[in-house]
């Protein structure tokens, strides 16, 4: 474990990259990929209050020796590109996945933002070019940054049809976003970058996530649909804030600190399971009624009690987690 410099005002730690590609990730169930994901880091340059990754990484060996909380540091995987190459070629250096019919989608990133600054943008470009050259896979890239166009511009046009770009935001209110997303570009800038990609012919998808409880879910769903220009998106994912670890506590605290007391109170009430379920169902119904069949992919954690209702909604886009 080595500490060096800072990134986005956080200390940076490096760990050796043993692997970068996960060939059998759970993100296939979310329909974000066909199994494979890749991540060149283990702790993000951004600090979003609702992020569940700190909870996932609590027992990770990548945190051994680090005194700060997961959300207070950046962890990068040293030698990530070389490790990725080793996973994509055989002992003789020949590509392992050259079947032209192997068009599966690989997703990035399950752990960290791929474009939180230009250094990470350059790393992501390098990783994408490696995948594009050594396989016939498609690549889905998700970010809270407005720098995705920089990635698109640096990849050869012959590969553009294999790239799918999306930006994530659960609100269009820049001030509201500031209260629980630390260090990220404003939603207005993200949406602007998504429009640039669409206007230049790139494949895109929507990610309305995570969204707070709304006074008028129908109006919210329409605003979000229009903002991301859903007619230009291949699919649209949506999700509410999940009660996982202390993500809800952090988000409520961020809202209160930002002066969004009503929003904090509404989310606080949602801690109760029955209220959280109402919040999730109302949000789902609002999205489900406005998208063409097959376009919506609504992510929902279920338990034995709620599963039957959500199973009935699968034809409308519900994905049970």
Description:
- This protein has helices at residues 53-56, 80-88, 118-134, 148-153, 174-180, 187-199, 217-228, 247-257, 261-269, 273-288, 307-311; strands spanning 2-7, 10-16, 21-22, 37-38, 41-43, 47-48, 74-78, 105-108, 138-143, 163-168, 181-182, 203-211, 236-240, 296-300, 318-320.
- The chain has a domain at 166-321.
- α2 (80-88) packs parallel to α3 and α7 crosses α10 (273-288).
- The chain contains eleven helices and 15 strands.
Summarize the structure.
This protein is α/β, with parallel strands linked by helices and 321 residues long. The chain has eleven helices and 15 strands.
Write the layout of secondary structure elements.
Blueprint: E1 2-7, E2 10-16, E3 21-22, E4 37-38, E5 41-43, E6 47-48, H1 53-56, E7 74-78, H2 80-88, E8 105-108, H3 118-134, E9 138-143, H4 148-153, E10 163-168, H5 174-180, E11 181-182, H6 187-199, E12 203-211, H7 217-228, E13 236-240, H8 247-257, H9 261-269, H10 273-288, E14 296-300, H11 307-311, E15 318-320
Parallel strand pairs: 2-7, 8-9, 9-10, 10-12, 12-13, 13-14, 14-15
Antiparallel strand pairs: 1-2, 3-4, 5-7, 6-11
């Amino acid at each position: 474990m080595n500490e060096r410099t800072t990134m986005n005002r956080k200390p940076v730690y490096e760990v050796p990259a043993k692997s970068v590609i996960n060939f059998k990730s759970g993100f296939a169930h979310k329909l974000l990929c066909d199994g494979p994901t890749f991540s060149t880091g283990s702790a993000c340059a951004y600090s979003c209050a609702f992020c569940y990754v700190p909870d996932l990484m609590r027992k990770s060996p990548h945190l051994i020796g680090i005194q700060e909380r997961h959300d207070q540091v950046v962890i990068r995987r040293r030698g990530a590109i070389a490790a990725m190459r080793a996973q994509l070629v055989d002992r003789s250096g020949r590509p392992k996945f050259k079947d032209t019919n192997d068009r599966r989608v690989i997703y990035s990133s399950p752990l960290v933002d791929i474009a939180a600054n230009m250094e990470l943008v350059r790393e992501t470009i390098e990783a994408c070019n490696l995948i594009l050259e050594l396989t016939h896979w498609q690549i889905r890239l998700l970010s809270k940054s407005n720098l995705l166009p920089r990635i698109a511009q640096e990849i050869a046009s012959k590969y553009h049809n294999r790239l799918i770009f999306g930006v994530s935001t659960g609100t269009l209110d820049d001030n509201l976003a500031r209260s629980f997303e630390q260090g990220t570009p404003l939603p207005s800038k993200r949406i602007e970058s998504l429009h640039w990609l669409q206007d230049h012919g790139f494949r895109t998808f929507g990610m309305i996530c995570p969204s707070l409880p709304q006074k008028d879910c129908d109006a919210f769903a329409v605003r979000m649909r229009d903002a991301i220009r859903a007619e230009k998106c291949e699919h649209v994912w949506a999700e509410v804030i999940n009660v996982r670890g202390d993500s809800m506590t952090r988000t409520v605290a961020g809202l209160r600190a930002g002066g969004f007391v009503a929003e904090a109170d509404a989310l606080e009430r949602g801690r109760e399971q029955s209220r959280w379920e109402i919040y999730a169902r109302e949000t789902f119904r609002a999205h489900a009624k406005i998208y063409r069949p097959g376009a919506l992919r609504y992510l929902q954690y279920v338990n034995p009690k709620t599963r039957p209702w959500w199973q009935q909604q699968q034809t409308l886009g519900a994905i049970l987690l």
